Amino acid sequence: MNISLNWLRSLLTPANGAGPLTAEQAEAILMAQGLPAETRTPMQTCEGPDIAIDLEITSNRGDCLCHFGAAREVAASPLGAYALVPPAFDPAPRTAEHTESILGLENSVPDQCPLFVARVVRGVKVKESPAWLRARLEGAGQRPINNIVDVTNYIALELGNPCHVFDLKKLAGPKIVVRFAHENEKLLTLDGKQRVLKSDELVVADADRAQGLAGVMGGGESEVTESTTDVVLEVATWNPVSVRRAARRHGLRTTASYRYERTVDPRTLEFAADRAMALLCELGGGRACAGELCAGAPSAPRTTVRFRPARCNALLGYTLPIETMVRHLRVLDIEAGPLGRGGEELLCTIPPQRPDLTREVDLIEEVARIQGLDTVPIHEKVCVRISPPQKERLARREVSSILTGLGFFETVTFSFTTPKDAQAFIPAGLEVIQLDDERRGEEPALRPSVLTGLLATRRKNQHAGVTRPGGVRLFEVAAAYSQRRQEGKAPETVESINIGMLLDVPGKGKAEDIQEAVRVMRGTVDALVRATHGPGAMVTLEPAPPHCPALDAGACGALSVSGERVGYVGMVARPVQASYDLATPVVVCELTLAALTRAYPPKSQAAVPPEFPGTDRDLSLIVDDSVRWSTVESLVRKHQPPTMDGVEFVGTFRDENRFGKGKKSVTLRLFFRDPSRTLRREEVDAPVRSLLDTLRGDLAFEIRS
């Protein structure tokens, strides 16, 4: 941010016998306030020499992106002896004609444009700006254009409120509409370039077409020229994210976007609009129409923060009187008053230009900054208390440890991929997030699944000739990104931390090899769930249609833990396998990390070991091929006898010659135990027969001999 020394002086008045502010003094004071100067450049303006001081301003201090903000910091510093002089002006002369009778205003996106103010000035004459205005702009490193446009640039540099002027006669309607752009809508911007807009970009339009890229740059079709006589003044504020997205996409870094990206509070617009109107009428010779048009969301109340002086002293490490703290806060326009409790707390009201102040510690930092950071004592030793690891971090370590022990190698891959690969993994109802940054080259899309990186890693290992007994196994814990688009709203980003796993299908990829790989993956999931939820958690794998094109429609299943959906298991579809140039089919799995870590650590269950031995019985049931093990298991558990202690899957066997077409044999093992004695054979056989009789009412089966 370039600050003109002459302009800065005009907003300060010396006190206590101090002389005019010098460049060296300004740099020293601003440095102490946390605003270091990068360079100091001598400037020659139309009114004489000046010095441009380039301040390094952090992204949270948008209030300092103007001369009035820098002057406020100089006046607040105890190093200087200067008082702040706010800009003074006479109100603009008004005509009887009302703005509402001339212009219409519609704000269809109040969540993106909290406030839009429009005012009309009649009878302006476009000409060269007076010398004082040109000198101010030149001292700040800007080129004067004409008196009307220069006023808008002046307001942005003086108060930090970007504004824009339209030629009223060039607006269709005449009307102003704040809306999202239509997909591929075209806009000629002031730099003479034709822009093709996206549907998530905000525009200021008239009744027919876009007339400006909101918060970034105005449109050339409504530009003020020498023939302009009536102008519409726009003073507004925008969602910083929307402005930043549009500015980066179009490669436009303007005075307006730089400030809007750092938040311009709606409550600062009225003074800026009054100041701009007064200058437009004074320098352009016009007259302001009565009233104004305003549209946007309801104004939010001023932020209040509780401030404890004792907490301030504890954090700073030295004692400051409460009166000193209050004085430091008030020089920054922060109102501080007692909040009961015998003066132990203060209620501080945050000024509109400081949206970065939201917590007590922010105010403590302001007190320390005004007092002087060099006054904070530095101790020879720093006492650090080590906090125990968070349970989410411990669970993540446990997941990595288990997968590593099961033969999986952990990978760390890039978050970007090609649009084609991303599209293969995008679920229905969501969209790929794609950047327009030229530096991304062929991979501008954020991955919608962790599996894109695992597949790319498997390809690299294959090309390098890497082999492992039983096949390569990879996993990664990372973020996946997508976006959900709703009509009339900005896209909503969907982000989750997932566990992605990949393992090769052993052998030659036959049906039995695929089944074996799926069983290994299912066993891996069981191990993870037992470690995070405990041994009592029920893992269910149900066949399900694939949620994205990357999975094989005939080999995909949904994973649930105790009824909660946690992820999926499936074979990678042949086209996707071919696109990654993989010679070996792979089984993949993706789980939501939060679903596993939420239950961690599992509750410990201690029990006395059984005093008497148990016994088991194996049953082989011939059922239809469509019957799943989960169905058999749930029915057995539903009707289990009192002495039954559990059920376990043993295996599945198919033989058309023995069982018939469309049939299979499912073998299960039943466990029995009595805590008070050893069960006799007949005490086990009878409950088994009773269970089978009961099952026949719910399941068609035959006993395999």
- Approximate shape: elongated
The overall pLDDT average reads: 92
Low confidence ranges: none
Number of helices: 20
Mind telling me the C-alpha Rg? 36 Å
- Spatial strand order of the main sheet: 22-25-26-30-29-28-27
What is the chains' assembly state?
Answer: single chain
Please outline the major beta sheet.
Answer: 7 strands, mixed
Beginning-to-end CA distance, first to last residue: 87 Å
Strand content: 25-35%
Secondary-structure-derived class: alpha+beta
Helical fraction equals 25-40%
* Number of E-type strands: 34
Report on the architecture of this protein:
It contains 20 helices and 34 strands. The strands form nine sheets. The chain has a seven-stranded mixed beta sheet with strand order 22-25-26-30-29-28-27. Strands 6, 8, 9, 16, 17 and 18 form a six-stranded mixed beta sheet that branches. It has a five-stranded mixed beta sheet with strand order 7-10-13-14-15. The radius of gyration is 36 Å and the shape is elongated. Helix content is 29%, strand content 27%. The longest helix has 23 residues. It has 705 residues and is an alpha+beta fold. Helix 4 packs across helix 5. Strand 11 and strand 12 form a beta hairpin. The mean pLDDT is 92.
Outline:
By secondary structure, this protein is an alpha+beta fold. The strands form nine sheets. The chain has a seven-stranded mixed β-sheet. Strands 6, 8, 9, 16, 17 and 18 form a six-stranded mixed β-sheet that branches.
List the helices and strands and how they pair.
Elements lengths: L1 E3 H6 L1 E3 L8 H10 L4 E9 L2 E8 L11 H10 L5 E3 L9 E5 L5 E4 L7 E8 L8 H9 L7 H13 L3 E5 L7 E6 L5 E3 L5 E3 L5 E4 L4 E4 L3 E2 L12 E7 L2 H11 L4 H6 L8 H16 L2 E4 L2 E4 L7 E4 L1 H8 L5 H9 L4 E4 L7 E4 L10 H12 L19 H15 L3 E2 L5 E2 L1 H6 L20 E2 L4 H13 L9 E12 L7 E13 L6 H23 L5 E5 L7 E11 L2 E9 L1 H6 L6 E7 H5 L17 E10 L4 H10 L5 E10 L2 H4 L3 E10 L8 H15 L6 E2 L2
Parallel strand pairs: 6-17, 7-10, 22-25
Antiparallel strand pairs: 1-4, 2-5, 3-4, 8-16, 8-17, 8-18, 9-16, 10-13, 11-12, 13-14, 14-15, 19-21, 20-21, 23-24, 25-26, 26-30, 27-28, 28-29, 29-30, 31-33, 31-34, 32-33
